């Protein structure tokens, strides 16, 4: 593994860090990603249909498939890994840290990042909302009913996990907060995300235009590599361990060689 670093001034103690995380940060916790070699969409392309809002709302079969996938989802038994814990450590270090996550697994909060410092851009699988009356209940309670197409007990409406499906707009308030955080960051980390899904990926552009150092930690190339101050290919847990320590002011934690890193 190699890392291309355009400049290393970013590797310093800072006051404000924004962190965008994708599925890649949770794979070491046993949760598969979506577009990798063994990703959910890669191994079962037809599964995308069940995660499309229009199809979910119009088809009982699609709803049954989605609920079935959540019943045995790896996230229910997953534990935070070293990458989640590194970000939690950074949030306790005195550095103003905000995590903007595309993940719905809740592992950042379980690792110790305060809930108020985490923006769940794509929602959370841990809550379920009625599409008719808006009532919210824990998803585990819905799954415990063991029904293929559970209905709202209050109004009979369609229940949907509180996640953003394909064809569904992001919450404008949450997205607006994320854009403000990206624009105010001194260093903006993009971790374990392909940066192919908009409008979330454009948070990187907002950060760079505002003068932040963009640091990408990802196994594969992304559309934003060319504007990043550093592109790091080493394993996410290993990389975040020293990156977070460096940003907190522990310079001795940084690797001895700047280029390449983690060869």
TrEMBL record:
The protein's superkingdom reads Bacteria
Q: What is this protein called?
A: protein acetyllysine N-acetyltransferase
Give one Pfam family, short name only.
SIR2
Checking CDD domains in the record gives: SIR2-fam
Residues at which Zn(2+) binds: 130, 133, 152, 155
Q: Might you give the EC number(s) for this enzyme?
A: 2.3.1.286
- Top-level EC class, please? transferase
Source species of the chain: Saccharothrix espanaensis (strain ATCC 51144 / DSM 44229 / JCM 9112 / NBRC 15066 / NRRL 15764)
User: Could you tell me which InterPro entries the record lists for this protein?
Assistant: DHS-like_NAD/FAD-binding_dom, NAD-dep_sirtuin_deacylases, Sirtuin, Sirtuin_cat_small_dom_sf, Ssirtuin_cat_dom
Q: Which Gene3D superfamilies match?
A: SIR2/SIRT2 'Small Domain, TPP-binding domain
Keyword annotations of the record: Hydrolase, Metal-binding, NAD, Transferase, Zinc
Active-site residues (renumbered)? 122 (proton acceptor)
Domain Deacetylase sirtuin-type, by residue range, is 1-250
Source gene?
cobB2-2
A Gene Ontology molecular-function term? Answer: histone deacetylase activity, NAD-dependent
